[in-house]
Design goal:
InterPro entries: HtpX_protease, Peptidase_M48. It comes from Dyella psychrodurans. The chain is mainly alpha-helical. It has three domains: 414 residues, no CATH class; 125 residues, no CATH class; 102 residues. A hairpin with a 7-residue loop joins β3 and β4. It starts with a helix and ends in a 12-residue tail after the last helix.
């Protein structure tokens, strides 16, 4: 299932969520009304003076319960306004700094950075739950700009690099497919409908025991105790609907995320291996943190051993066999013996790469596969298994290489100058790096740009920027945007006032050039959008409602920019533009749109306009742009980086398009 089909599934999940939440609220209100009417109407309570006021009592009770539920939900959502980092810290996660040196944490960061570069998103904040021995992970946030990936210590201790990559790709599918915003809203709604059980326990505890001075006080204590026990019972209604909502929303999305991870990495062995290890390690995917049920619907695996129709994930063996149809449960035994005999299976997975710190690798014995050693190295083709969803697909040769995007991402990162990667790791040096990237190639323009930098940040920042310019000049077009993605976590740590000054300075120094280069425009546009959304996560755009014909002029301009900058001559540009627009508006009369002199501001407005489209219309836009890019049979780095900016502006994943050799 692609991104745009996934959006329809997300909207369907939202409707299910709203319906179940409405049922939960109605059930709770009715139950509380019944409790109040029963308690105050009991002869022993002696509330005869309320006779004739039952309707008013029920009305006030109903309004009070509604205010409590929605007030608690609003409070919880507001407490998570900072986005993914707030969720991670709420479950005792600790941040992994960009310049981390611990081998396992460094490898985690390397894997996440490579997946981010391959998917065309900024590198998310990274957290680890060091007290959690189970193998689990989650993605949280309102948009890709404020996303957080959090993994347990069990992931670091037990998973190989490929398995860790599979888990991270699974979580990135939630980032790319818009699941995270719904997950945070669900946390708030669940908090609201489960609040009564907490209040009930407080009532019952404060009303139990002790002595009273009067009969009236004794009656008040009885009333409090009855309400407390009643609220505890009613709270179980909230718990029932809460778990039901989690299961209804999460199960199908987790299966789709498994499929997306396979499609993304082009191998089943990574994510399937992680699931197998969950099946054999004693802790499984369990969490110990007290509020684990709040985040159960966004985790990679089940957070407790309670398997039933309330489970937020499909059964573990079902997930494994969807990926590897020939797999049988008894084949877990050799892996289980290997991981439990010495208790050091956590060291088995960290094969060193060029940019990973070396961690000792311990080999596990091969699994015993039916049919001989040839089948032992077989995996089903990712697309066939995922699309068909069958368990009888024939095995195919294994060791499928990672997708071209992953290979390119690792190659691009490893080919960057070390000084620039080091600069991207810390807030102040990341600021100077971005300024260096925006400096013009024309020597005659730099003095004016340098004055802007000195006036905004001082001579020290200017000096540091100048030192990075020479290294920056060695970058290829394919390296500039990934370097911005790498620097984003460090940039977000700067004060908002300094980030505002950075945005203004970038506009000023790029605007000095009367003919702004496309790569400079892409850099400033992408960074400005990421920083704006990261500063106010809850205000990140949601799905629009516009239809494509209302944005025809905007699409025409975007296609014209792509065609002009991706073609060698005017005739080729016109053919590319026509190919794109014909796909979006087949059979209609089309007229070539000449780029205006100030195309940058026009393109900004056009991209903002297209971001308001319905998801199905955005799909047509992306397909049209791919037609323009591929019209000459060559995909250049400049074209791909422009497509990266367009996809980011439309909040769509970057499609995989191999670069020209």
């Amino acid at each position: 299932m692609d991104f745009f089909a996934r959006q329809a599934q997300v909207r369907s999940s939202t409707r299910v969520l709203v319906a179940l939440f409405a049922l939960a609220v109605i059930a709770i209100v009715v139950a509380v009304d019944f409790l109040v009417f029963t308690v105050f109407g009991h002869p022993w309570i002696r509330m005869a003076d309320l006779a004739g006021y039952q309707h008013r009592l029920i009305t006030f009770t109903t309004l009070g319960v509604l205010a409590l539920i929605f007030g608690c939900a609003f409070y919880r959502i507001h407490s998570l306004a900072e986005g993914g980092s707030a969720v991670a810290e709420d479950v005792n996660g600790i941040p992994v700094p960009p310049d981390v040196t611990d081998p396992k944490l460094r490898q985690l960061r390397n894997v996440i950075e490579e997946v981010a570069i391959a998917s065309g998103t900024p590198v998310p904040d990274i957290y680890v739950m060091p007290q959690e021995a189970g193998i689990n992970a989650f993605a949280a946030g309102y948009s890709a700009s404020d996303a957080t990936i959090c993994v347990t210590q069990g992931c670091l201790d037990h998973l190989t690099r490929d398995e860790l990559q599979g888990v991270i790709a699974h979580e990135f599918s939630h980032v790319l497919n818009g699941d995270m915003r719904l997950n945070i809203r669900l946390m708030g709604l669940l908090y609201g409908i489960m609040a009564l059980s907490v209040i009930g326990r407080q009532f019952a505890w404060t009303s139990n025991g002790g002595y009273e001075d009067s009969e009236r006080q004794a009656e008040n204590k009885v009333i409090g105790y009855m309400f407390g026990m009643g609220f505890i019972v009613i709270g179980s209604i909230g718990y029932f609907f809460g778990r039901l909502i989690q299961a209804a929303v999460a199960r199908s999305r987790e299966s789709l995320a498994d499929a997306s991870a396979v499609q993304f990495t082009r191998q089943t062995s990574g994510i399937a291996g992680a699931l197998k290890k969950i099946a054999v390690v004693p802790e499984g995917s369990l969490l110990q943190v007290g509020n684990r049920h709040e985040v159960a619907h966004m985790m990679f695996g089940d957070v407790d051993a309670f398997n039933s129709w309330f489970s937020t994930h499909p059964p573990l063996m079902q997930r494994i066999r969807t990926l590897e149809p020939w797999f049988r449960e008894q084949q877990l035994l050799p892996l289980e013996r290997a991981m439990t005999n010495d208790g050091l299976a956590g060291d088995d997975g960290f094969a060193a790469t060029d940019d990973d710190a070396t961690v000792e690798k311990k080999e596990l014995p091969p699994l015993e596969w039916p049919g001989g050693a040839g089948v032992a190295t077989a995996v089903a083709p990712a697309a066939a298994v995922v699309a068909a969803g069958t368990v009888d697909a024939p095995p195919a040769p294994a060791n499928d290489p990672p997708s071209e995007s992953f290979q390119q991402a690792r190659t691009v990162k490893q080919s960057m100058p070390p000084s620039l990667i080091a600069a991207a790791r810390k807030p102040e040096t990341a600021l100077t790096l971005v300024l260096a990237l925006a400096m013009s190639e024309h020597e005659e323009l730099r003095p004016r740009q340098q004055r802007f930098i000195a006036n905004a940040f001082g001579d020290d920042v200017l000096s540091a920027t100048n030192k990075l310019v020479m290294d920056e000049m060695t970058l290829t077009a394919a390296q500039r945007m990934p370097l911005i993605a790498l620097s984003f976590p460090a940039l977000k740590q700067l004060p908002q006032a300094r980030l505002g000054t950075l945005s203004e300075t970038l506009d000023a120094i790029v605007g000095i050039d009367p003919q702004v280069e496309l790569d400079d425009y892409c850099l400033v546009r992408l960074l400005r959008m990421y920083l704006r959304e990261a500063a106010k996560p809850r205000k990140a755009p949601v799905d629009g409602q516009k239809k494509l014909p209302t944005c025809r002029d905007s699409l025409s301009l975007v296609c014209a920019v792509v065609a002009v900058y991706g073609s060698s001559d005017d005739a080729s540009a016109r053919r590319a533009w026509l190919a794109a627009m014909s796909q979006a508006f087949p059979g209609e009369a089309l007229q070539w749109q000449t780029l205006p002199m100030e195309w940058q501001s026009s393109l900004d407005r056009a991209l903002d306009d297209l971001d308001g489209l319905l998801p199905v219309a955005k799909e047509i836009v992306i397909q049209s742009l791919r037609s323009a890019i591929q019209a000459d049979g060559v995909v250049t780095a400049t074209e791909k980086e422009l497509l990266r900016v367009v996809c980011a502006s439309l909040h769509c994943p970057l499609p995989q398009m191999p670069l020209a050799a």
